[in-house]
Amino acid sequence: MVQDFMQHLPVVILAACVLVSYYLARWILVPVANKLVERSPVKWDNLLAQRRVFIRAAHLVPAIVLALGLPLALDEALDVYGLISRLNNVYFILVGYWVFEGLLNVAMDIYLESPARRHLPIRGLAQAVKLVVFLLCLILALSQIADRSPVFFISGLGAVTAILLFIFKDPLLGLVAGVQITTMDLVRTGDWIEMPKHGADGDVIDVSLTTVRVQNWDRTITAIPAYELVSSSFKNWRGMRDSGGRRIKRAIAVDINSVRFIDHELLERFKGIRLLRPYLEQKVRDLEDHNRRHVSDEEFRVLANGRRLTNIGTFRAYCVAYLRNHSHIHQGLTFLVRQLAPTAEGLPLEIYVFVNDTRWDFYEGVQADIFDHLFAVLPEFGLRAFQLPSGRDVAEVGKALFPSGARAGSLD
User: How far apart are CA 288 and CA 342, in angstroms?
Assistant: First the structure.
């Protein structure tokens, strides 16, 4: 019996060394490592303790001790030696992946704290890396358990490809889409995107391997499959924010019946508008010079002869001057005040400029102030804004046509 005990003593000693090494690593080395990172002047290494990387790494110590001591305790020719060695390798592979995942999480945390975090949606890419590494570790672990070459399992994947594609359809599509989203810089966290197909209109709050989450303006959250951003169209407003300008594209419908040539009296009144003086001085000189050379005095009495100022053209020039002198209009981006094709609703005069602040509330305030002013100043140019008749307008016409039948105060 003593001889049997002495024969198995190396195994007992090895088992004791494995257990002792784990407890030494877990309860002595790990606390020491945590203390060191707490006292370190840099901050990023604190994440190693927060992500429990040291605790995960402590599980590698007994695997290393067992791998080093097993040839000393057992004969390599024994079947049990091969079984223990393979199981230890499986344990080592799984714990190694566990440690790798913790280190990758630390790297993600460091990146998310950096100023460049908005320029690369790294979370989806990190999840793709985790998936690939996990599959490789799984193949290695299976090869150890079956005592076969990893090439055997890789070559055998062809037989179950259809099943794997069906089971992992979303992760695989998400993996490809995540790489494309990252490399082509399609979407970043914080981008404002619109995707009517999925009812998404708001800020991107998360980009993962399989989904992109959008917080809509009504505070609801829409989850969009990552591959939909590659296979379908969507609008990203990042370019607007990066440009520093937000577009105003709105038209004033002018009643065509109010468009006319400017007479002397109206011209003198326009000269009192400070913003119009440079335009009028130059324009009047150009017109007088042209008419003097091409039109006689007798012909000029006919309005159709010669070139003349119009109230709509002068109002358009006023809009340009007003916006050029506006402190909140971006002068370096597209700047247009143009007439569009006349419609049944009048002559559209479109304002196409950019506000130099992309904040939504500020932009809406500037846009409203501009059109408040332009609508209010429109009668100064003898122009009227067009709008369809309302019920009150029809009633007023009825009053005018049938005054005896109208009831006083009926519309008040």
Answer: 29
Tell me how many degrees the CA angle 165-169-173 measures, rounded to the nearest 5: 115
CA 199 to CA 48: how far, in whole Å?
A: 40
CA distance 392 to 73: 104
Separation CA 181–CA 374 (nearest Å): 44
State the Rg of the chain over Cα. Answer: 39
Contact 342, 255 (CB under 8 A): no
- 386: tokens are 């067009």
Per-residue pLDDT of the chain (412 residues; tens, 9 = 90+): 545 555 567 778 888 888 898 889 888 888 888 888 888 887 777 888 888 888 999 998 998 988 888 888 787 777 788 888 889 899 999 999 999 999 998 888 887 777 655 555 566 677 778 878 888 888 888 888 888 877 776 766 665 666 666 666 776 777 778 778 877 888 888 899 999 999 999 999 988 777 889 999 999 999 998 888 888 889 999 888 888 899 999 999 999 999 999 988 888 899 899 999 999 999 989 988 888 888 887 787 787 888 889 999 999 999 999 999 999 999 999 999 999 999 999 999 999 999 999 999 999 999 999 999 999 999 999 999 998 887 777 888 888 888 765 554 444 4
- For residue 78, what are the contacts with CB-CB under 8 A and spacing of at least 6? none
What's the distance, Cα to Cα, between the start and end of the chain in Å?
116
**What's the length of the chain?**
412
Evaluated on CA atoms 193, 199, 205, 210, the torsion sign reads negative
DSSP 8-state symbol, 187: -
- 352: part of which helix (H) or strand (E)? strand 347-355
CA distance 254 to 316: 11
Tell me the CA distances in angstroms from 348 to 246, 329, 337, 341, 384, one per residue in order.
21, 21, 10, 7, 12
Pull the structure tokens for residue 35.
């203390």
Strand order of the β-sheet with 211-216 is 221-225, 211-216, 200-207, 192-195, 235-236
Indicate the pTM of the whole model: 0.62
Q: Strand, helix or coil at 263?
A: coil
Rounded to whole angstroms, how far apart are CA atoms 336 and 249?
Answer: 9
Alpha helices in 236-380 (DSSP H): 238-243, 264-270, 277-294, 297-300, 311-324, 360-377
3-state helix, strand and coil shares in percent for the chain, rounded to the nearest 5: 65, 15, 25
